[in-house]
Amino acid sequence: MRHKERQITDKQELWQMLQKASHLRLALCDQGKPYIVAMNYGLDQESDSLYLHCALKGRKMDILAQNNHVCFQVEEVAELIDGGKRACKWSMRYKSLVGFGLARVLTDPDEKQKGLSVIMAHYTEDSVEIDRKVVESTAVLKVQITEMTGKMSKQR
Predict the structure, then answer these.
(1) What angle (nearest 5°) sits at the alpha carbon of residue 114, between those of residues 111 and 120?
(2) pTM of the model
(3) Structural domain of residue 8, as residue ranges?
(4) Is the dihedral of CA 15, 94, 101, 67 positive or negative?
(5) How many domains in the chain?
(6) DSSP code of residue 155
(7) What is the CATH number of the domain that holds 112?
(8) What are the DSSP E strand ranges found in 10-153?
(9) Distance between the two ends of the chain, CA-based, in angstroms?
(10) How far is CA 30 from CA 57, 72, 129, 138, in A?
(11) Gene3D superfamilies in the record, alphabetically (predicted)?
(12) pLDDT of the chain along its 156 residues, tens only?
């Protein structure tokens, strides 16, 4: 990172960013070509992992069968800074996080149920019931986080 003073390395602050964000972007590598998609997710801080859900078949699943290395990104956009008539004076106050990990498609129904519950807990404090048929017809990915770093704009 070029501006080390803007780097966020505090793990708790990074987890807070993950807790606040509403979605993440998951990046995969499809035979040497990048592929990125926005996804809903849940986080399990105890195991340093994320849970994501998707269809049982499709491009993500095809890619993951060949290469389970993933990258993910979230951001907090706090404020656009108006620079007036000079373009180079415009800026954005922000915080962003980039992480890397290894994705695994869960096959055990109980693990899938847990993953879906973790995802739902990210979006609501209410207890929700997850139908077993939904568990069977949904793919659940568990991403074991291997690395995370953050960056924030300079404060003005």
Answers:
(1) 145
(2) 0.87
(3) 4-152
(4) positive
(5) 1
(6) P
(7) 2.30.110.10
(8) 24-30, 33-39, 41-44, 49-54, 69-81, 91-105, 139-152
(9) 20
(10) 15, 15, 35, 22
(11) Electron Transport, Fmn-binding Protein, Chain A (2.30.110.10)
(12) 565 566 788 899 999 999 999 999 999 999 999 999 999 999 999 999 999 999 999 999 999 999 999 999 999 877 787 788 877 878 777 889 999 999 999 999 999 999 999 999 999 887 778 888 888 889 999 999 999 999 888 764
Quote the tokens at residue 50. 């994320």
Count the Cβ atoms, other than its own, within 10 Å of residue 37.
14
CA distance linking residue 64 with residue 103, whole number of Å: 7
Token pair of 148 as six digits: 């995370």
